[in-house]
Design brief:
Chain C: Its main location: other. The complex is a heterotrimer of chains A (about 150), B (about 650) and C (about 180). Chain A is mainly α. Chain A is about 65% helix and about 0% strand. Chain A is built from six helices and one strand. Chain B is α+β, with helices and mostly antiparallel strands and about 650 residues long. In chain B, the strands form two sheets. In chain B, strands 2, 3, 4, 5, 6 and 7 form a six-stranded antiparallel sheet that branches. Chain B has a four-stranded antiparallel sheet with strand order 1-10-9-8. The chains are: A mainly alpha (about 150), B alpha+beta (about 650), C alpha/beta (about 180). Strand 1 of chain A pairs antiparallel with strand 1 of chain B.
Chain lengths: ~150, ~650, ~180
């Protein structure tokens, strides 16, 4: 009697444990979904005030994600999907501005600026050096100077 | 009955404040140029009165929110009787008019602090500094009174207000804007000092010494303000991101980058008398960026989730203000800067050069952010079409530019002023280099996989930390470290901690979008998350659906997380309130999505390793700033 | 040496210039890349007659107007009187594209407010809209005799737009 009770308790607990399921991913195909997120993260949601197509909850964003998902499943490449979107919505939809003459200043500008800054720095320090004589100081001297500067009011 | 007059008191206070600010802005300035003692003496009292008047105005607006006075239009548009008190206070700066009033209130506050804490400063100098601040305040007060009056009436009064955007009903809202504005506005002090010294023709090391604590304090607030905004976006918006390169985010980041360059440049100017022109220019640019940011956010020129409701008149007004303030200061710079003398000489290999090098990178980084933010506008205004510049651009450009800065952070402090030898640097740093390489290879392997970017992240962050530790050890042997030294170490280590957070989360976070019915589980980052139940919940001004999730590891239940989907009474849009289990080494983040069939729900879970180190690093940086400001050199000055 | 100090000011003035021009622009308005491109093909059932389909092919040889609308779209109600006027003026066939709508709601709205359209095509899932780059209903296209999109209006048609842009464009295209 007790044995039967124990067995039935055992069976019940096993049954309820097996009711705890591993949750299924929302997406049909996680690999497709990963590509979808990667592509749509770099696109703008057109009806939102600056959200990505990946994150937006708007109707249009859902429709466009559905469209991109289908195209991925059809085997289209990232580039083809981007062209599809640009054909319909213009360059505005891409968060990564395409590199073309219109955006050369944008993409090259920072590095030109950096180069210019570094050259200017080099010239400036060189000029300062020729202006004043260099007195080599020992480490100990430098340390004392640092201490003096620290205590200086 | 009082409701009939209290807002008018606030309005009147603003009008008076405009008058006083104009006096403050013009008379002492002219007095200093002409040597008129009586005119100069007006500066401090005028500043004190301005601050008192702005305190009254701001107090009145806050009071109107507190008592739910819906006869004030601004209150009716941004608050609601059901809104909890703390958010009613936060709502004071939830919209354009109120936040602008906060801006001006803080500006007069800073001016007041400068007036009170500068008794030993030369009278001519202080007159000029306070005057500049008064002029800026006048311009903004004129703007507020002409186009953005927070005390405008709504008659007959509304029964109830429209309430605050649910996204903004959050503790983060209460603190993020005031912190941010304290920083933005605080840079006006460095700006005023720079202008004052240009006007006086005395571009010496003294103005740098005076500017430093004010600039550092402003920088601390800006750091905290930006960090708070980022953290708020992370837990409030439900998509787990922490930075989006949104134009308004960029508008706060650019002054921060320039401000950091300015901080370091001021150190050189104070200690070595060098870089005077450059430091003055940086001080002007830092505040200009603050003003530019204010323009961008309120003019409707850029698309942003943050932007305030816009009105073309406001845009033109701020643009005129911006042009006058920045244009005249840059003109003054062009005329007066050439007259300054050179400071001490220094070699190509010296601490001065390293700091200057760091400056170049920081300024270029800020310039790149500006370029990216404004490029769509540039292209559009030339009628060449419409493009977008988003995170992919900024990440691709900003990160490479900052890498050398991170490298320099570890090297600079070891370099001697004036001249240092490469051999000596190598001798001091080879140990740190070894630690860095070991970390770069070991940690990615431990966490999962090694990629070049993650390796680089750990290489640089551990390079900085190891170098810092070595410096601290060496310093402690020599004597008691100064506030400045501690500040520098905390600041630099703070950045390293930040980089670790960014690298970890970027490379090793896990995200799962699943369908969960009660009792379903999902594994993420070694944790098991089980949905217990989903049921209704009630808040002070919203109805919600709440899911209870059990988070366990190795069979032990660690925590229950309860994300909600809220429907606020006063707004049609449903809001997701994510639940986060924050920890030193990771965050577990659960967000409730849409209901599905069969009692199931769409649920998103994240495992975010070390994500809190991002904001922890910022806190360390701010703490470092605090130590630097508290250095006894400055305290002596205040006691006098 | 002195000249370099004026550079920051010059750069700033240039910046202000751009910002000034920018103030007069709308950052939300997105020009269509479909202008001067052939109108994308489609074949969907009509709103009122589900068994009959509509395709732009049927309009070749004429200048015609495609107006994207929906019963749930509030701005569409704003422009509806203009559409009635446009329909009455009879300068070009006015075809509607009912976007992501429910048939009963759409038919009810036309019954209540008047039907300016020759007919309405029913775009149930929004795919036609995507192909036409629709993102903010209402949107209006003017398509020429060769089937090329020559004009797009985003947002409701106002009397001014009707007078200054739509009628002249139609007249010009008809004379080609």
């Amino acid at each position: 009697m007790i044995k039967q009770l124990l067995i039935s308790i055992f069976i019940c607990s096993v049954a309820s444990a097996s009711l705890a399921n591993e949750a299924a991913p929302l997406a049909q195909d996680p690999i497709v979904e990963q590509r979808l997120i990667a592509i749509s993260e770099e696109m703008r949601c057109l009806v939102c005030q600056n959200e990505s197509l990946a994150g937006s909850r708007s109707d249009l964003a859902q429709d466009l994600r559905r469209e991109i998902r289908e195209q991925i499943q059809q085997g289209k490449s990232d580039q083809q999907i981007r062209e599809f979107m640009v054909e319909r919505y213009g360059d505005f939809v891409l968060y990564r501005p395409p590199v073309k003459p219109l955006t050369w200043v944008l993409w090259i500008g920072p590095f030109v600026l950096l180069l210019g800054g570094l050259i200017a720095l080099l010239l400036y320090v060189r000029r300062r050096n020729t202006a004043a004589p260099k007195i080599p100081l020992s480490d100990l001297d430098n340390q004392r100077i640092d201490e003096l500067l620290r205590e200086e009011k | 009955m009082w409701q009939l007059t209290i807002p008018e008191i606030g309005h009147f206070a603003l009008i008076l404040a405009l008058g006083v600010s104009l006096i403050q802005g013009i008379i002492p300035l002219v007095g200093a140029q002409q040597g008129r003692q009586e005119w100069i003496m007006l500066a401090r009292p005028a500043t004190q009165i301005s601050f008192a008047l702005l305190a009254i105005a701001f107090g009145v607006l806050t009071w109107s929110f507190y008592v739910n006075d819906f006869s004030v239009l601004y209150v009716a548009e941004h608050s609601n009787a059901l809104l909890p008190t703390v958010y009613r206070i936060g709502a004071v700066w939830g919209g354009h008019e109120g936040s602008l009033l906060l801006w001006i209130f803080l500006l007069t506050g800073w001016a007041f602090a400068v007036a009170q804490l500068s008794k030993t400063l030369d009278e001519f100098m202080i007159a000029r500094v306070l005057s500049v601040l008064g002029l800026i305040a006048s311009g903004l007060l004129l703007f507020v009174l002409a186009t953005s009056n927070p005390f405008e009436r709504l008659l007959p009064a509304a029964q109830d207000g429209r309430s605050l955007n649910p996204l903004l009903q959050d503790p983060g809202l209460v603190f993020h804007p005031p912190m941010l504005y304290m920083g933005y506005v605080g840079f006006s002090v460095a700006f005023a000092f720079a202008i004052a010294s240009l006007l006086s023709g005395k571009l010496d090391a003294a103005w740098a010494r005076w500017s430093r604590p004010w600039t550092t304090t402003a920088w601390i607030f800006l750091t905290l303000g930006i960090a708070l905004g980022s953290w708020w976006a992370y837990y409030e918006l439900g998509w787990g991101g922490w930075w989006f390169w949104d134009p308004v985010e960029n508008a706060s980041f650019m002054p921060w980058l320039i401000g950091t360059a300015l901080l370091h440049s001021l150190a050189v100017t104070e200690k070595r008398g060098g870089f005077k022109n450059w430091t003055v220019l940086l001080a002007i640019i830092a505040f200009s960026m603050s003003l530019l940011g204010t323009f961008l956010v309120r003019s409707g020129v850029l698309t942003s989730v943050h932007a305030f409701a816009t009105d073309p008149r406001r845009g033109i007004f701020i643009l005129i203000l911006l042009t006058l303030v920045v244009g005249s200061s840059l003109l003054l710079y062009a005329l007066r800067a050439p007259k300054s003398t050179l400071g001490g000489a220094f070699a190509l290999m010296s601490r001065e050069t390293f700091i200057l090098l760091g400056n170049v990178f920081l300024v270029v980084a800020s310039g790149s952010v500006l370029l990216g933010t404004l490029y769509p506008l540039l292209i559009d205004s030339l009628n060449l079409g419409k493009i977008s510049v988003g995170p992919p651009y900024f990440n691709a450009v900003f990160v490479p530019i900052m890498i050398p800065v991170l490298f320099l952070l570890a090297v600079g402090p070891w370099a001697n002023w004036k001249s240092t030898s490469l051999n000596q640097l190598v001798k001091r740093l080879w140990g740190a280099a070894v630690v860095a390489f070991v970390a770069a290879i070991l940690i990615p392997r431990m966490m999962g996989e090694f990629t070049l970017l993650t390796g680089l992240g750990f290489l640089l962050s551990f390079w900085i930390i190891a170098s810092g530790v070595l410096q601290i050890v060496r310093q402690v042997r020599v004597g008691k470290p100064t506030g400045s030294f501690i500040g520098m170490q905390l600041g630099h280590i703070g950045i390293a901690v930040f980089v670790i957070g960014v690298t970890m989360v970027g490379a090793y976070q896990e995200e799962k979008d699943v369908r969960m019915a009660p009792n379903d589980t999902v594994m993420v980052g070694g944790y098991q998350i089980r949905l217990m139940d989903v049921g209704p919940a009630q808040g002070p001004n919203y109805q919600a659906t709440r899911g209870n999730f059990e988070v366990s590891r190795h069979g032990n239940v660690e925590r229950i997380l309860s994300p909600e989907k809220r429907n606020y009474d006063s707004s049609a849009m449903p809001m997701t309130e994510a639940a986060i289990d924050a920890g030193f080494t990771r965050d577990i983040y659960v967000s409730l999505g849409e209901p599905l069939d069969n009692h199931a729900w769409a649920v998103r879970v994240y495992y975010k390793p070390f994500v809190d180190w991002i904001w922890g690093g910022c806190l360390l940086m701010a703490l470092g700033g605090l130590f630097a400001v508290m250095d006894k050199r400055y305290r002596l000055r205040i006691k006098n | 040496m002195k000249a370099k100090f004026i550079i920051p000011l010059i750069l700033f003035v240039v910046l202000i210039g751009f910002l000034l021009v920018g103030l007069n622009r709308d950052p939300h308005e997105v020009p269509s890349p479909l202008i001067n491109k052939p109108a994308p093909a489609f074949n969907v059932p009509q709103l009122a007659k589900p068994t009959v389909s509509f395709s732009p092919e049927q309009m070749k040889g004429q200048v015609w107007i495609l107006n994207v609308w929906a019963s749930w779209c509030i701005a569409c109600r704003e422009e509806h009187p203009m559409l009635i006027e446009l329909g009455k003026a009879n300068v070009a066939p006015l075809i509607g594209l009912d976007y992501k709508d429910k048939r009963p709601d759409a038919i009810a709205m036309l019954a209540e407010r008047g039907n300016p359209y020759l007919l309405s095509a029913f775009d149930a899932d929004g795919r036609v809209g995507i192909n036409y780059g629709v993102y903010g209903v209402p949107e209006t296209y003017i398509i020429d005799k060769a089937g090329v999109i020559r004009f797009k209006q985003i947002g409701p048609i106002t009397p001014e737009i009707l007078e200054k842009l739509i009628y002249p464009t139609i007249a010009k295209l008809k004379s080609e």
